[in-house]
Amino acid sequence: MSKFGKKPGEKTTGSRIFNLFSYVFLIISSCVSLFPIFYAVMGSFKSNLDFITGKGGVIPQSWHPENFVKAWETANFARYTLNSVFVTLCAIIGCLLVTSMAGYVFARGAFPGKKLIMGLFLGSMFLATGAITIFPIFSLAKTLGLNTSLWGLIVIYIFSINVANVYLVMGYVKGLPKELDEAARIDGCGFFATFMSVILPLCKPILATVALLVFKLVWNDYLMPMVFTLSNDNLKTLTVGVVSLKSSGGGAGAYDIMLAGTAISLIPMLTFYAFTSKFFISGITAGAVKG
Predict the structure, then answer these.
(1) Any idea of the CA torsion for 169, 94, 235, 276, to the nearest 10 degrees?
(2) 52 within some domain
(3) In a domain? residue 24
(4) Which of these, 109, 163, 200, 279, has the minimum number of CB atoms within 10 Å of its CB?
(5) Does residue 223 sit within a domain?
(6) CATH code of the domain covering residue 251
């Protein structure tokens, strides 16, 4: 017993109440976040008549697993999936390279105007340009002859640097001992060689986090791929192809087929997260704390 009559480690009534409210809040937040996914999966088993008439609730009154077969046959899923995998993998590789180098330079580099450049760079996090930049980006891609292939999308994703990812890498690199750089310099490594041989291999956790964030962004992006693939159906990514399923029902919107395609498109995202979740959590924590 302590001098205040409370055993060491014993929780007070206030802390118990706080924990209770925390759990309730987290449960409610989780339900709100997961409900759209649950609705999409349940809706993929409904008939389109249920959507048009508005009958029934979230759970289908009658189950229609054939919606998945129709979605797969109506849309060129094999081609769209291949396009999405190609664009996403290339974008991840390019973004990891650019993001890791930018984070390393801001964390370890010393050059005139560094603070100003870093301030402007990080300040762009608060500028939400959205659809405003689509036309100039597409015009530039057209001028460079990149608007007729998926390489145009890949180049845009790579050089449209996500500042938050750079900040995470920068914070992680700052947490690495500078003695590593000094040891590499003694061994004859320059600034870039130190990055490639010493820093980059140690950044695997934070790079796994960045890879997952880039995967989520690129895989789920709709607006930019839609603009680049308007004139060529064979270049459509999976997200664009899934949304186009809505118009496959003739005069009425085929919501059942679209949601079935949406459920199918969720599988790669969930699979990728299942394999990288451990690195994602450790990387996002280390990048935030060490910065």
Answers:
(1) -50
(2) no
(3) no
(4) 109
(5) yes
(6) 1.10.3720.10
